[in-house]
């Protein structure tokens, strides 16, 4: 697997062994006898923030070059609104007389839980104007038993971007509120529980921390902002979401500096977690990696540990940090332990052992996943994101 995804290697092995899945790098072999073809290629961010559609175009050209019978071309890649039109133009402009239909079918999978998200989706979105295309996709997804939203192609493309932009906006919103909580000595956990109990607001995507990363949220919000600008609409909300997100690492640095008496220069910092979130080895746009770079720039010496992303991180950070074999190893002679990803492993650490290992007993929890009382009981100083120090005595 090019990326670590729980259960995926096994799933692919089983499907291959049972003859339902084959791999080929020859499009004519892949398309032989196919009624539906999915375009599921990467759409990385181009130099000016727009989605780079090189691979989508290439796939469309290859399909147009070798399709023989009637074919439904379904775009699953995250592409800006109006890209299905481009795919249609490429395919139909190729001179191939085969009967092509184009549809959009965005996916909402999260890394780390992609298989479960696929098998139990909240909804299936089908963007198509052709009733036959809609019927084919309905039939294909029928075994999943999920609600199906049939819309036009532009609306389907917009749903994907609007969903990711909204999730990103929730995260930036709660990060801003967490920073405010820290300033006025309120507690973000109480605020999240209090507002999350309101059914209109909900509890999900309100976990404050280091900001959102990964290959989707940052890229998609930036790409949607580009689409807005191209249509002379100022993307005020989207820009604010991105700008709060960028600043969250600066807030984290300030938190670490405060705990260490004002400066990280020449301090030894242990950073636990380098992936953009738990359960993946993906470090693309990882706020933890941005944090490590910022600490190094400020003169800190960093020892890093991640249970699965270390191999990828090593390629980027090289010898600018020391890589540890465990969190305990990372803590040796460090002035602070910084928890930078939400890996469950970090919530279950042996805190008395950490207290004995650290040179100065500071723990900075940038994902609010630790129990502050347990950490403090071990004699350590704890700081989280917008968590205050008041003990609550519930009656
Ligand atoms: C996202 C979308 O959730 C998914 O629907 C889409 O198909 C692809 O993009 P993914 O990139 O796997 O999925 O990550 P996600 O679990 O959404 O988390 C994104 C980032 O936000 C991570 O860095 C995560 O740590 C952060 N996050 C998430 C928060 O900081 N707080 C939260 O409450 C939730």
- CATH superfamily name of the largest domain? NAD(P)-binding Rossmann-like Domain
CATH topology of the largest domain: Rossmann fold
Enumerate the distinct ligands.
uridine-5'-diphosphate-xylopyranose
- What is the approximate shape? elongated
Strand runs, count: 11
Percent of residues in helices: 40-55%
Structure overview:
This protein is α/β, with parallel strands linked by helices and 395 residues long. It folds into 2 domains: 8-151, NAD(P)-binding Rossmann-like Domain (Rossmann fold, 3-Layer(aba) Sandwich); 171-395, Rossmann fold, CATH 3.40.50. It contains 15 helices and 11 strands. The chain has helices at 8-17, 27-31, 54-66, 83-92, 114-119, 131-141, 153-184, 188-196, 217-230, 236-259, 287-297, 310-317, 327-331, 351-357, 372-377, and strands at residues 36-39, 71-75, 100-104, 124-127, 148-151, 268-272, 301-305, 322-323, 336-339, 362-365, 381-384. The strands form 3 sheets. Strands 8-7-6-9-10-11 form a 6-stranded parallel sheet. Strands 1-2-3 form a 3-stranded parallel sheet, with helices on both faces. The mean pLDDT is 94. Uridine-5'-diphosphate-xylopyranose (UDX) binds next to helix 7. Uridine-5'-diphosphate-xylopyranose binds next to helix 7.
Chain-wise SSE layout:
Elements: H1 8-17, H2 27-31, E1 36-39, H3 54-66, E2 71-75, H4 83-92, E3 100-104, H5 114-119, E4 124-127, H6 131-141, E5 148-151, H7 153-184, H8 188-196, H9 217-230, H10 236-259, E6 268-272, H11 287-297, E7 301-305, H12 310-317, E8 322-323, H13 327-331, E9 336-339, H14 351-357, E10 362-365, H15 372-377, E11 381-384
Parallel strand pairs: 1-2, 2-3, 4-5, 6-7, 6-9, 7-8, 9-10, 10-11
Helix pairs in contact: 3-4, 7-9, 7-10, 9-10, 10-11
The chain binds uridine-5'-diphosphate-xylopyranose.
